[in-house]
Design brief:
There is one protein chain. This protein is of the alpha/beta class. Helices cover about 35% and strands about 15% of the residues. The protein is built from eleven helices and 14 strands. The strands form two sheets. Strands 5-6-4-3-7-14-13-8-9-12-10-11 form a twelve-stranded mixed sheet, with helices on both faces. The radius of gyration is 20 Å and the shape is elongated. The two termini are about 20 Å apart.
């Protein structure tokens, strides 16, 4: 088994080059995506699927995927040539309701994320790569659930983090994500905007010596000198100025109606967005299948597909592996550049 040196505080620690892949919601497209990707040999790296063997076996039989399974209780039991599954034993074939919201199946999908994160924190996995869960379904048993990033941050005991969506066409990060528009406006504060600029810059710097980060305005025309709101003057501009003072090449606030076009043409390496849809809409328009969701600022490396459970096409052999393969590749890239 390959090993690598960890750059964590414990300089004597070693950990495997092993990715913990969560199966996602068993009633969605997650199981067939991982089975299809494995059969097509689309992932170049060692990984173990954290999920339920009974679900994967059912999906394999139903959709005729010729998969050879190996059940493990620990990533160290990995065997090459098999789809290695850390079986959580939470969901059976009879529990499944493909394409429908199911509290038991959703609770299990949350547990997969918790287990994978714990494996990474324990040094048994080098990173986490997640397949989609359904927030509505998980909230039937965990009313406070808002998303993967927030759940993993809570497990890690961290409050300084952000979500990044990355592709070859555009990269965006977010000041706020899964909150109301009213709350997202309140979240536009100098310290938070600066923190997201810093996290974005530090991540891009892993791959490029001198990143150039754009910061989108919140209001129309980036506030137009205060005519359409004062957030740009009072919070965003001071954050941009502080970032530049600290050596981070940053521009903004730039009107949201032009910043994404400029970034997609290569003028900027990433765009810091003020709220969820400001970043998600252009990202999904430009590269729906190729986008990767990455959590920045956490103790564990985590990347994910940039799509949902797609209940409408679950167990129909229609789901694309594109986003998952990109997420897996990006996870490998992050581990190598940690």
């Amino acid at each position: 088994m390959q090993t690598r040196y960890s750059s964590d505080c414990d300089k004597n620690a070693w950990k495997q080059i092993m990715i913990a892949v969560t199966m996602g919601d068993g009633d969605g497209v997650g199981p067939e995506i991982i089975l299809n990707a494995w059969c097509e040999r689309e992932m170049d790296g060692e990984f173990v699927v954290v999920g339920d063997y009974s679900v994967l076996d059912y999906c394999s039989r139903k959709l005729d995927y010729p998969v050879k399974f190996h059940i493990v209780s620990d990533p160290s039991q990995y065997q090459e040539g098999y789809l290695n599954v850390l079986d959580m034993g939470m969901v059976s074939e009879g529990d499944l309701t493909p394409g429908k919201v199911n509290a038991k199946v959703a609770a299990a999908s949350r547990a997969y994320v918790v287990k994978a994160t714990e494996l990474a924190l324990e040094g048994k996995a080098g990173a986490v790569c997640t397949l989609p869960v359904n927030k509505e379904a998980i909230r039937l048993t965990d009313p406070d659930f808002t998303g993967h990033t927030e759940l993993i941050a809570g497990i890690c005991g961290q409050d300084s983090y952000t979500m990044m969506l990355a592709s070859d066409k555009l990269t965006v990060t977010h000041v706020s994500t899964h909150v109301s528009m009213e709350q997202s406006i309140r979240n536009v504060k100098k310290d938070r905007v600066y923190d997201v600029i810093r996290l974005t810059y530090e991540n891009i710097k892993r791959f490029k010596a001198e990143p150039y980060i754009a910061v989108a305005g919140l209001n129309a025309h980036a506030g137009e000198g205060g005519a359409f709101g004062r957030q740009e003057l009072d919070e965003i501009i001071p954050a941009v100025e502080l970032a530049n003072q600290n050596g981070m090449k940053t521009a903004g606030p730039i009107p949201p109606d032009t910043v994404f076009l400029r970034a997609s043409r290569g003028e900027f390496d990433a765009v810091v967005c003020m709220y969820h849809d400001q970043g998600h809409i252009p990202m999904k328009l430009l590269d729906f299948d190729g986008g990767v969701n990455v959590s920045l600022g956490l103790k564990v490396i985590r990347a994910s597909v940039d799509h949902g459970t797609a209940y409408d096409i679950a167990y129909q052999k229609k789901a694309s592996t594109g986003s998952f393969v990109k997420a897996f590749e990006y996870t490998m890239k992050l581990m190598k550049n940690e």
